[in-house]
From TrEMBL:
This is DUF1996 domain-containing protein. Residues 49-303 form the DUF1996 domain. It comes from Apodospora peruviana. Keywords: Signal. Residues 1-19 form the signal peptide. It comes from the Eukaryota. The lineage of its organism: Eukaryota, Fungi, Dikarya, Ascomycota, Pezizomycotina.
Length: 360
């Protein structure tokens, strides 16, 4: 069954943020809601996952991580203070010590070897790979409640290998043009749940969209999902909320819309002599998934003090916000940590995926 694609309300604003000139911007005249959108450079690529596999070294598959440099394999929420224990952050705003991570994309060559696909900054940004992070407050006059210390959540399923019968995609992929992308929809055509089956001149973009409703009590849950929820369907003419819906009674508190945008620079693999002879899709997630269903995003909140609340209240837009402290781009790039798990070559060709989740 084909998925019923439903554009998010925020899709109208992606003309600003995806593939267009990020010059002077006036939300009032552009009719685009305010939102933070900023670059987080690569902190480390490692086989660690303190959310799903806390304390496990190595974790089952490799991730790319950005944010505060206190990231480690455990990060016990009862004792780990990201703000106090981080000396730097790889993100544009120096008050953001949160950690954000996703699966890693690999290319499988015709001879069966694998190579990690590098990331590149979204158009309009500079830096080293990483993730473009969004925080989007509710539309209209609705207030948003910033996350509290210890808050965590997860989107996607690392073990997902096929399309469920009922699936409202919050993780999607786009084959990007060489420059510019004027279609400006997120998780709506031409986006797809599966990975593209053709050469992409501008690489492959993956987007991960997090829930926007919270139960107001629990900072986490056993599955890292149950304490948050996506809005219920509703008419945007009646109420301007995320996704054109309203928060369910079980999760009444509006939280910022967190979204990840990752651009995988697949252009070095745009060679028909490298692709399978039958023309099939050669990319695979670090989870071992060849289709694209298993991309996922993990989030651990770590903003300093009330910085995020101030930014949401001020309706800041882009990567400049008068109520937040920014840092020079080179300082963000310099914030890295050493890899813990060293059993694989991170940049070269390898005979199998790290963790041997997929063997040929």
């Amino acid at each position: 069954m084909a998925p019923q694609w439903k554009p998010l309300i925020l899709t109208a604003l992606l003309g600003l943020v995806v593939g267009q000139d990020p010059g002077p911007f006036d939300p009032a005249t552009a009719n685009i809601p305010p939102m933070l959108r900023f670059q987080c450079n690569q902190l480390v690529i490692d086989r660690l996952d303190p959310l799903v596999n806390p304390g496990v070294v190595p974790s089952p598959h490799i991730h790319q991580i950005v944010g505060g440099n206190s990231f480690n394999a455990s990060m016990d929420p009862k004792t780990h203070d990201l703000v106090k224990q981080s000396g730097c952050t790889s993100c544009s705003f120096s008050e953001d010590f949160s950690n954000y991570w996703t699966a890693v994309l690999y290319f499988r060559a015709r001879n069966g070897t694998y190579r990690r696909v590098p990331q590149k900054p979204s158009e309009g940004f500079t830096g080293v790979g990483g993730i473009t992070v969004y925080y989007i407050p509710p539309l209209g006059k609705a207030n948003t409640t910033a996350f509290r210390p210890g808050f965590r959540m997860l989107v996607g399923e690392a073990t997902l290998r096929s399309m469920p019968q009922k699936y409202d995609p919050k993780v999607c992929h786009r084959c990007m043009p060489k420059t510019g992308d004027n279609n400006n929809l997120n998780c709506a055509p031409p986006d797809g749940v599966t990975l593209p089956h053709k050469f992409c001149e501008g690489g492959i973009r993956s987007v991960i969209t997090f829930p926007t409703c919270w139960d107001g009590v629990n900072l986490d849950s056993a599955d890292h999902k149950s304490h948050v929820a996506y809005p219920l369907d509703g008419s945007i003419t009646d109420r301007f909320d995320y996704d054109g819906g309203v928060c369910p009674n079980t999760h009444p508190v509006k939280i910022p819309q967190v979204m990840y945008e990752v651009v995988w620079d697949t252009t070095m693999f745009n060679d028909k002599d490298l692709w399978p002879e039958d023309g099939s899709q050669p990319f695979v997630w670090s989870t071992g998934d060849e289709n694209g269903y298993s991309q996922h995003g993990d989030y651990v909140f770590g903003w300093k003090g009330d910085a995020l609340q101030r930014a949401m209240d001020a309706k800041c837009t882009g990567d400049v916000c008068s109520v937040l402290e920014s840092q020079p781009a080179d300082k963000a790039v310099d914030c890295t940590i050493d890899r813990v798990v060293q059993e694989d070559d991170i940049n070269g060709w390898v005979p199998e995926l790290p963790g041997s989740v997929m063997k040929r």
